[in-house]
Amino acid sequence: MRTRRFLVLITAVAALAMAVLMLTGCGGATDVQPPQVLSGSTEPSATRTAPVGEPVRLTVPSVQVDAVVRPIVDDSGEIDPPTEDDAWWWTERGTPGSADTVYLAGHAIHNGDGVFAPLQRVEPGAQIQLDTTAGSRTYRVDATATYDKWNLDRYDEVWQAVPGRLILVTCFVVDGQPTDENYLVYASLVD
Q1: Is 26 annotated as catalytic?
Q2: Which of 3, 37, 109, 185 could form a cystine bridge with 114, CB 3.0-4.6 A?
Q3: Considering 50, 60, 96, 107, which one is annotated as catalytic?
Q4: Hey, what's the signal peptide range on this chain (predicted)?
Q5: pLDDT at 34
Q6: pLDDT per residue over 23-42, tens digit each?
Q7: pTM here?
């Protein structure tokens, strides 16, 4: 009889502990640094659509970015482009012309190298040209922002499905030194 009471007590304590964990969350720390919007707005602007086509070349004339776009497949949620001179299209996310946001990643390296190093000079209103297998698209830069790179997956505004949105992702470099932040360029399809 005593053993049965002990088991009932243990079960009740375990159930209470589970309830507390479920109500308070047990996923670890939830404090994430808010992004620093450097210029513009990260809110989605009016959406436009175009025929679906895979990206093949990216140019940002105002900062002299001109890159071949290659597909990268990575379901881990982490993108580490394999080369410094190419832009990499995250195929698990949107395709230009689809109902989802399109993500391109490229390196910015502390010594100034990397295809996306010049992006830190881009301003809202600048044009981005994205050539695809279905034709060329013109985007307008809406905003630039920095995010904690180790928690990028936790920022809802980054991962919203927005038709006609392009997000360029690279490392944030300050005074030639790498940081723990990613630099994002938000752009909207205009043509």
Answers
A1: no
A2: 109
A3: 107
A4: 1-29
A5: 67
A6: 333 333 445 566 667 666 66
A7: 0.74
